Amino acid sequence: MTVFAGGRVVTDQGLVESGWVEVEGELIVDRGIGEPHKPVDFDLHGRALIPGFVDQHCHGGGGNTFITTDAAEAFRAAELHLRHGTTSIMASLVTGTREALTEQIRTLTPLVDQDVLLGIHLEGPWLSTLHCGAHDSALLRAPDGAEVGELLAVGGGRIKMVTIAPELPGSIQAIHQILRAGAVVAIGHTDANYEQAKLAIEAGATVATHLSNAMRPLHHRDPGAIGALMEDPRVTVELIADGVHVHPAVLRLVHNEAGTARVALITDAMGAAGAPDGRYLLGQLEVDVVDGTARLVEGGAIAGSTLTLDWAMRYVVLEGGVSLDQVVQMLSTNPARMMGLDDRGVIAPGKRADLLVLGPRLEVESVMRRGDWVHGPGI
Ligand SMILES: [Zn+2]
Questions:
Q1: What separation in Å is there between the alpha carbon of 268 and the centre of ligand 1?
Q2: Residues 236 and 317 in one domain
Q3: Which residue among the candidates 268, 310, 325, 354 is catalytic per the annotation?
Q4: How many structural domains are present in the chain?
Q5: Are residues 186 and 302 in the same domain?
Q6: φ and ψ of 139, to 5 deg
């Protein structure tokens, strides 16, 4: 048993200036305000205690990528983000051949079963060539029912999210297939107009893959997917809050329009997250990272980020003027809820003891995952 007390705690009841949390085994069993009734094992000394981050869109980190046939490499990528506070992480693949994706899904499957990963995200290959970003445009294709079914079957329930461009022929049928397989449908890398995006949302799409990046821009007579996704209360919008992918004014605008409960902060990180500048691979494409910004060697498009979610938290609090309890919702509560993970994402009785102790500058000092210290002086 561990009893935390003497610090700011973000619980299901909001931000408490002086709160306590009791952990028993893998779970949080209680929380409250003021002095706990039991002896305190962990004095927070005024520091903050928040739930672990849930990153629903990530390709790698620490020089390692999830787009691999080496399970040990994927494990190391998850470990890098865990040290930065991400206690639940999705492994996002990128566009590839059917054979390559099959091999990658098979590699990641055991890591999902071991709870290293919360699931697999197929970001591609059913995306728009007009907004391919760092996807190999030669391999992009319309969703063919047989291929969609085959890849979902290889995942055997571990594919938890699929990003699709809804203007492609066959996309509505594919959305139904993906939902039947128990995965969430995201709209992204798309040239869809407003009506096409609305149809996809009506068909059951509930996520905007990095809203505004790799989408037809919002125009006052042609609001496109951005307009449809922002205005629909059923949609959770992903944002890459690294100061590069989205201007801070747009971040504030989306937050104000969609509201805190509908924003999920993601990393969309590639292998270079938490690693030095240099040349990296994103799928088959070469990327140069200079001063932490990743761009394709060919053409110079912004590729994935080099973000970790602790950095995003500091950025959004400092640049976005967002409060700590709001940023916790966007980093933990919302992505967990959107993925249907009702066992985590908030400090409340019965939830997983995935906890972060933050230092005075919101740095992640200690990480607890399922009741075990995995990083920092808490160990
Ligand atoms: Zn991505």
A1: 5
A2: yes
A3: 268
A4: 2
A5: yes
A6: -100, -5
Q: What are phi and psi of 60, to 5 degrees?
A: 160, -175
Looking up residue 104, the CATH number of its domain turns out to be 3.20.20.140
Same domain, yes or no: 183 and 296: yes
**Is the same domain home to 202 and 284?**
yes
- Any catalytic annotation for residue 242? no
Distance 329 CA to ligand 1 centre (A): 21
What's the pLDDT tens digit per position in 194-218?
A: 999 999 999 999 999 999 999 999 9
Give residue 278's domain range.
Answer: 53-338
Residues 228 and 246 in one domain: yes
| 169-188: pLDDT as tens digits | 999 999 999 999 999 999 99
Tell whether 185 and 77 lie within a shared domain: yes
Q: What is the 123 CA–ligand 1 centroid distance (Å)?
A: 6
pLDDT of amino acid 318 = 86
Alpha carbon of 250 to ligand 1 centroid (Å): 19
- Residues constituting the chain: 379
List all residues 6 or more positions away from 192 whose beta carbon is below 8 Å from its beta carbon: 128, 165, 166, 167, 200, 216, 224, 225, 228
- Pick from 170, 119, 163, 123: which is nearest to 147 by CA? 170
| C-alpha of residue 363 to centroid of ligand 1, in Å | 25
Residue 205 CA to residue 330 CA, distance in Å, equals 19
**CB neighbour burial string for 10-28, b if at least 16 within 10 angstroms, e if fewer:** bbeeebbeebbbbbeeeeb
Q: What is the DSSP string of 71-115?
A: HHHHHHHHHHHHHTTEEEEEEEE-S--HHHHHHHHHHHHHHHHTT
Task: Give me ligand 1 centre to Cα 339, in Å.
Answer: 17
Instruction: For 86, list phi and psi in degrees, rounded to 5.
Output: -85, 105
> How many angstroms is it from 202 CA to the middle of ligand 1?
24
Q: Are residues 44 and 57 in the same domain?
A: no
**CATH code for position 352:** 2.30.40.10
CB-based contacts of 358, cutoff 8 Å, min separation 6:
47, 48, 49, 50, 364, 365
> Would the pTM of this model clear 0.90, i.e. be above it?
yes
Dist. CA 273–CA 20, nearest whole Å: 33
Q: 129 and 35: one domain?
A: no
